[in-house]
Design brief:
It contains nine helices and four strands; from the N terminus they run βαβαββααααααα. It is α+β, with helices and mostly antiparallel strands and 207 residues long. This is Glutathione S-transferase.
Amino acid sequence: MLKILGKTSSINVRKVLWTCEETGLAYSQEDYGSGFASTQTDAFRAMNPNAMVPVLIDGDFILWESNSICRYLARKAGRDDLLPGEPRACANVEHWMDWQATDFNSAWRYVFPALVRKNPDYNDKNAIAAGIREWNHCVDILDQQLQRTGAWAAGETFTLADIVLGLSVNRWKMTPFEHPDFPAVNAWFERLNLRPAFLRYGNNGTA
């Protein structure tokens, strides 16, 4: 059985758990991270030198980096619908996943600690405003893409791109600031809410 190490409040752990549910792979999950088992031990660093969650253990194989884990799970389960085998279709899914991990995630680096975690070190109003603008800009990019596809992030079918982006948009929606109206994103988010795994690990009250 697969083992996922990481607390379920982590957005990156939740994308892995959601993928496990979508693929039907059997797994267990153990809470690691702040407030739970420490990631700052020699044993954990031997698995992930970054001392971060999630970590996947599959027998004697250990993997870190959440999007890489999601790709591995889709391939292990033979789910070409989630991550196509054809090179162009695969690249189309993966470039949205990579964008989520870089540009989209970077947009909230200041805003989320300031407005959700109330971290006193993040109190620069100009930095908060700039972060909100950049975050909204990223959601606008996704909205334009969804207008083009009329369905899902990478095209006509649900893929891994929707999993990683779905959690990002959930965080955007739950962070307290005035949100512009993005009709295509809102319609897509409602489609995600029809998936039990998203309700369990995505839109479940956790940002």
